[in-house]
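re: that chain from earlier
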Amino acid sequence: MAGNLFADLPPATAQTAERFDTLLARPGLRIERIVSTGQASPPGFWYRQEDAEWVALLGGEALLRFEDEAEARHLRAGDWLYIAPQRRHRVDWTAEETPTVWLAVHHTGD
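^ sequence. v structure.
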């Protein structure tokens, strides 16, 4: 199993649906590539996931907000963070001029 994380990216002008590609799935583990082209969480919506998530931004930019923090985090290529299970978070915006490429590792446990 092999691939390229930057293959088949949509053009920056394409306002298509956010893309989720599962790269590897095993019991208790899922690795996915997410490609955003200007998407954001719906108003008032917060993610609250059962599993922990480690996420890295490989390209583009995003503004990620945690409910328990006063300031949102402006993520740029190379930034990564850990999201504990059940921690409420949302994406305020992703770059529109270039695809925002995320690498997300979801796993059970804390």
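The chain is about 0% helix and 45% strand.
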